[in-house]
Design brief:
This protein is of the alpha+beta class. 28% of the residues lie in helices and 19% in strands. A hairpin with a 5-residue loop joins β3 and β4.
C-alpha cells in the first residue's frame, strides 16, 4: 500500500527534516499562527514525533489495519487520543484511510510538499 514516508532530501531551500529517513509520516493535527514556524507545511513522524517538509510516497508491505495501529500508537504517545475512546478510534480509522487515499494516486519516490489544506502536490 502507498503511504507517506520521511526523506532527508530537501526539495527546496527552506525545507527541513528532523525525522528519521524512511519513517512513516502523518498529516499535521494542529498548526500555529507563526509565519516562521513551518508547521502548516510539515508532516509528522510516527516514530520520532518530529516534523519534516521532506517526504515522499513509497509502496510498502503494510495493510491499512497495520497503518491504523501504528498511527494510533503514535497519537497515543503524543496525547492526541485516549485508549478505550470509541470516538477516537473512529476518527483515527477514518484518518488512516484518508492518508492511504491521498497517497494512492501519487507517484513513488518523488519529493512532495503539503499545504495547510492537507493537499499533497508533486514538484
Amino acid at each position: 500500500m502507498k503511504l507517506f514516508v520521511a526523506t532527508n532530501a530537501p526539495a527546496d531551500g527552506d525545507d527541513f527534516s528532523w525525522t528519521v529517513a524512511g519513517e512513516l509520516v502523518r498529516f499535521p493535527l494542529d498548526t500555529c499562527d507563526c509565519p516562521d514556524c513551518g508547521c502548516e507545511r510539515s508532516m509528522c513522524g510516527l516514530s520520532s514525533h518530529r516534523a519534516t517538509t521532506s517526504f515522499t510516497v513509497r509502496d510498502l508491505d503494510i495493510d491499512l489495519a497495520t497503518f491504523r495501529e501504528l498511527l494510533w500508537e503514535s497519537l497515543t504517545d503524543e496525547g492526541w487520543v485516549t485508549n478505550g475512546s470509541l470516538e477516537d478510534e473512529r476518527w483515527v480509522e477514518t484518518w488512516a484511510a484518508e492518508h492511504a487515499e491521498a497517497a494512492s494516486g501519487l507517484p513513488v519516490e518523488r519529493p512532495l510538499h503539503i499545504s495547510f489544506e492537507r493537499t499533497a502536490r508533486q514538484d
